[in-house]
Protein: DUF8211 domain-containing protein
Amino acid sequence: MSHDRCACINHQQNLAKHHFYKNIKPKNNILKKQTNEDFINNKSSHANLLYHRWLSSQPKHHYSKRTGVSYISSIHARDANSILKLGSKHMYRKVFSNFQRIFSPNLCTQQKQEKRFTRACRHVLGKAIGDDHQAILATARKHKFIFLKNQYIKFPIRHLVYKKSFIEPNPEDYPFLVPFYAKRHLNENKTWKNINTLSKHLNPPTPSKITPKPPDVTEPFNPIPNMFIPKKYRDIIPKDPIYVNNCFITPGSREWFTYMYNLEKSIDEQAEQEFNERVHREVTQAFERSHIENQERRTKEIEERKQ
Structure:
């Protein structure tokens, strides 16, 4: 260890158990759990769970803090036309859609997210054969990689298939619910009876809607926090509330100082760019004037020699 220290073999276990990790909060996995304790972990139970998600239209939201990417995955069942006329055996297919980029308000984390997403795009899209738009989309669809806002990726769920194609499936051949007879009037009552029975073993979560924190409306908004502010920030503090990715930035917080640092840096870069442009423009004008004066002087000398 640093400063020539070493761990005590007699008390190291006690320190690690009661002191090192006492401020770390355990993960709350109760809200993420969709089944109760009597759920049987086998193929039939998972097929019924997938059937319930499809019939109740429950999308699943995915968000990666590492890359700042958010998208939605939903379950779609094959219709009767695809099974009877086209010969498709797959019961379901999964669809990725609603791609969004949600960056962290921290500038350092935002830069890391941007680099990771660019690296992932280069790794996947670099395998495309050709530079045209269709080849890139085909490569992304092959690797199930979503990177555009209006992009849809559809792929079949291969472990749930019908036994025969081009004929109407028999529900008695499967130990789980099949989506072929779900939305037909003759089987509607039976379908919802099965759903009510299945709901006893399921506990679908209710995703909490995250809304940006609005400023306090009971008191007038004060853009200058009641604390020490560096002199370089005092003249550039915005008078209106600051929002980053639809999230309100509280004056005086860590995100606020990050925003002010970025704002002050951009102002300095813009001022430096304007100064360089002005110097370049003045030097160019001076060079042009000197060139014109030299030409006039040479022309005058030539005329004098001719005379």
Summary: The CA atoms of residues 53 and 220 lie 47 Å apart. The two ends are 93 Å apart (CA to CA). The first helix runs from residue 12 to 20.
